[in-house]
Amino acid sequence: MNESLDISFVDINKFIKTDILESPEGCEFNQSATNPNQTTAVQDVETSVSTGERYEVKCEVCRVSFSSKRLFHKHSETHLTEKGISEANSEAEIELDVQKYECTQCGKCYKHKTNLIAHTKIHQGYTYRCDICGQTFNYKQQLKIHQLKHNDTRQFVCNTCGKGFKLKQQLQRHQLTHQDYRPFPCDQCEKSFKLKQQLQNHQVIHLNIKPFECSQCFKRFRLRPQLDIHYRVHDKLKPYECEVCGKFFSLKQNLNVHLFNHTDDKPFKCEHCFKGFATKQNLTVHQKTHKKGK
């Protein structure tokens, strides 16, 4: 018997002793390992040795090497949970999180090939167009969400107040308003918020930065939605109509203030003459008349 085969059989005996007979997990091969001829896994190793071939496969999780595919697959099962996710160690978890599918045009990486395929449509000029307003989107899912704006169906209803929503995520966010739990505190002041987005919007105040500038009057805003609403002034868009008098307003809050004029509710009272006003702004204007009279 040549030297290479002698070394191989030594490796087999060592493997049987350490990886099978002394396995702490009670491997199913324990009972038959005392008789290598009855162990299919060992027979696989002996077959490779008898042919003069050296077979080796290494576990990518714990880096242990095996001389048999059968033993390797059996060993791999020890790293799997019921959901089939490796939990052997943190190194394995990092390996599973690798974004291995890279876009050849922009270098962006994805964990799943299907996500990469969807992404490449951007470079190929594929767009999804809304057949109602003509707006285009890079992804079909974006188009589906957009089309809900044209549909007034609100199938997700809050069981507390009865308000309906088009998306389940919108309902979940709304339901937080019925709770007093505010898990997102500001590290600059004592305020806390129910949503992370609310905290992020609030923190802009402490930065005193207004990155969004109007291209027509150069007025600056802290948040993009504020700029979008401001553009209505230049575009003369007034989507909010008073159902009583038919007057239109650019902002919903302006409509709400206007509605006080159609009611007898005038909560803002002048401390000098006790005259009531529907808005605080109207009260402020009125109070100036008392100052002029002095």
From TrEMBL:
Residues of the C2H2-type domain: 57-84, 101-128, 128-155, 156-183, 184-211, 212-239, 240-267, 268-294
Keywords, in A-Z order: Metal-binding, Nucleus, Repeat, Zinc, Zinc-finger
Pfam families: zf-C2H2
Keyword Protease: no
Location(s), subcellular: Nucleus
Protein name: Zinc finger protein 865
GO CC list: nucleus
InterPro entries for this protein: Znf_C2H2_sf (IPR036236), Znf_C2H2_type (IPR013087)
Principal cellular location given in the protein's record: nucleus
Gene Ontology terms, MF aspect: DNA-binding transcription factor activity, RNA polymerase II-specific; RNA polymerase II cis-regulatory region sequence-specific DNA binding; zinc ion binding
Gene3D superfamilies: Classic Zinc Finger
SMART domains (UniProt xref): ZnF_C2H2
SUPFAM superfamilies xref list: beta-beta-alpha zinc fingers
